[in-house]
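Q: For a teaching handout, I want to show students what a protein-ligand complex looks like in token form. Below are the inputs, and the small molecule is flavin mononucleotide. Please produce the holo structure.
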Amino acid sequence: MNLYSTLARPLLFQLNPELAHHLTLASLRIPVLSKLLTLGRKAPNDPVKLLNLPFRNRLGIAAGLDKNAEAVLAWRNLGFGFAELGTVTLHPQPGNPKPRVFRYPSKQALINRLGFPNLGAASIAARIRRLRDRHALQDFPIGINLGKSKITPLDQAPIDYLESLKLLQPLGDYFVINISSPNTPGLRDLAKPDDLRRLLSTLQDFNRSCSKTKPVLLKVSPDVEFSTLPEIVAITREFDLAGIVATNTTLHRDPDDPKETGGLSGRPLTDRATAMTQTLRPLLGSDQILIGVGGVMSAADYQSRRSAGADLVQIYTGMVYLGPDAAWEILRTS
Ligand SMILES: Cc1cc2nc3c(=O)[nH]c(=O)nc-3n(C[C@H](O)[C@H](O)[C@H](O)COP(=O)(O)O)c2cc1C
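A: Here is the structure, written as tokens, with flavin mononucleotide included.
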């Protein structure tokens, strides 16, 4: 029991999930608050170098929690080792009609059908540039997750992602190509081998032409047949991708899962995401990394994801249920 689970969480859970999220982010934008929340505690320290980047520990914030790069310093103050911002799309967009986020406390789950609401690549680039001008974030890598704008037709997806990458390439430490969110119509079709090749070759041609080539990873859906994973991994190798992020939210529902339309995350995803990590690890080259995400809600989940082969681990839903102590609870340090 801590202050979050006894006081803050019950209050926040009275509000609709999106409002609670915005209020939390707004308060976390005040750096002194996140410092106060963790006063006197040192960030969990388990340094590792991956992707040629220094991580102070292996637990990060998953994409979607900070879509517009609002609270990067807070994630660092809250003990995490890295944060993945976005999903960023080229065009600013409002996302799907509300309500579009649903909480299921008895299942430790969320369902969302947000549809990438975000300020767009140019505004978010300006924000991250300002942040980098003011703060050295040497031991806190920033990933940027890129998605397709809703208004861009699927056959023009490579150009849409490319234009975002052009704006953001110098600003991220690594990039994640998101073809796996379930809430943008057609997005998951980009996992088809020919479409995926076209997308990755467009992005990597540009990335390689930049003064510093950045690591690029692919974020995959837990709903793909495991039998398709060898081909997906082979394509990531063909285009020199640095690794895979597994997984996004799921459209699958077991009989007792909540039924709202959208992507399900949290506890109901734990087993599937772990199995996917286990399947992917031996397929990936020794030079490729695996970021495990999906239903990591406790220290035991973190350990089993690491044992399954994840080099780095991310959380989103776990953060909602565990609150500001999440990094300490999951990494079991005080
Ligand atoms: C409300 C919400 C919004 C999300 N938005 C994004 C997003 O914009 N891009 C993305 O790649 N994943 C997004 N995700 C998926 C998470 O990054 C993560 O892959 C998934 O939720 C599984 O992890 P979890 O069980 O720890 O939440 C979102 C998840 C939630 C719950």
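A: Two things your students might notice: The first strand starts at residue 48 and ends at 50. Residues 27 and 33 are 7 Å apart (CA to CA).
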